[in-house]
Design brief:
Strand content: 15-25%
Number of helices: 12
Structural class: alpha/beta
CATH topology of the largest domain: Rossmann fold
Helix content: 25-40%
Strand order of the largest sheet: 12-25-26-27-23-24-13
Amino acid sequence: MNESVEKPRHFIRQIIENDIESGKHGGKIITRFPPEPNGYLHVGHAKSICLNFSLAKEYNGVCHLRFDDTNPIKEEQEYVEAIKEDVQWLGFDWGEHLFHASDYYDKLYNFARELIQKGLAYVDGASPEQIRECRGTLTEPGKPTPDRERTIEDSLDLFQRMKDGEFKDGKYILRAKIDMTSGNINLRDPIIYRIRHVTHQRTGDQWCIYPMYDFAHSLSDALEGITHSLCTLEFQDHRPLYDWCVEHCDTPETPQQIEFARLNLSHTITSKRKLKQLVDENHVNGWDDPRLPTIKGLRHRGYPAAAIRHFCETIGISKSKSIIDMSVLEECVRTELNQTTPRGMCVLKPLKIVIDNYPEDKEEWFTVAKHPQDETMGQREVPFNREIYIEQDDFMEEPVKKFFRLAPGKEVRLRGSYVIKCEDVIKNPQTGEVTELHCSYDPDTLGKKPEGRKVKGVIHWVSAKHAKTAEIRLYDRLFTVENPAAEDDFTQFLNPNSLTIIKNALVEPSLADADKGLAYQFERLGYFCRDIKTDALVFDRVVSLRDTWK
């Protein structure tokens, strides 16, 4: 896929270009992708990854990968490594710019002390219930707890003792002293430090107090010299707190937070919590289940990284909330795979054909292009003999109008081979099921049109003698409704047909040695990828040839 086309305009590009023109930030562009290492990335994160890294590259800047690791209860090194792998697989490289919020724990602690000394933070011993009660509502202002008037000296002493491990979890918190009557609840003296006697995956037991996300995130941006802090719209109401932290701490830079609409994709969910529920309740087979929108799931299914990058560029950047139809992503996948995948033939539901006038002891190997428009992919050898298999759906005993495949007395061309004609139909006498067809072939039609007649239908097939048995996994939408996240019990709308397994499909012999992770177009069926997790001959359907969802 050509990714060198002119990039679409959007408001963030305009902000960056205006900043460069005005000399803001000294003309520097530094962005960051700041995941919390508490789960696996999904396609919504891919949008942010592509945006941050691509903009930095486009404007000769740099993009940092920073792990905002401020909650050791939920964070694991496994997630850190998985996130790094996903970012690299998507095609991006942070180079030497790999950071962690925990790199700054000493500095963040000193920033918190600085706020206390300025009278802008205090240690509060109120219970969580008291703090909730005093916080107020959207229509009612908050009320101060008694500790809001604690002296600076007292707060400094308690904060030091919190750090020294003197108190158990929940005994005290550190709160910013902003405005309990603010219309923005995020400014009603938010918690900026809490006690957690938990081992951190990087710092071990060095710390027993940890900064809250909003505090650590904004100041980590400032410490790294981030110029444009790009985040999704749910952080818009947090921006005043972001700016407050940066303004009232002695930081080297003043980053600008800019919000854009998150990616919501139809018929799936992009919530870490709900994705975890699907995994924990065994609705799917782990975080890399090909039905999930996790990057690991998309990769397992066979989605190319280039297609995901193209999708993220196609949907654009705006401030308007919307749900992008899954078909948009699938079309990007088709476009990429159509250009890059070799062809092959697979029969999902085999129907045997005996070609009566083809010699029993004869065998031919046809040389067929791996890709009809790309000679550089080379060719493959496809065997042919007296007995072959076609799809059951490619035969109809009583054909409907415009059915151009095989029927009694009708002709059809076998892909890359001869024209055959159905002469006889064999059925199971008990069930009436068609079990075998007897046909004739025209030996003068190999690579040629039949004389005096027009054959419209072309079908795929495999040699009965040479075909290899494969398991085929057909994936479909995970949910039956467009926006499952809006439902009270979203699991009630799981699609029971999201996975269909065909155990005894037949593939042409050239596919037997397909590399794991390599995608093919199975002619007339769709795009399929050799499964990356098993040594068995298993192919996952990446996407159909066209959108069939109703």
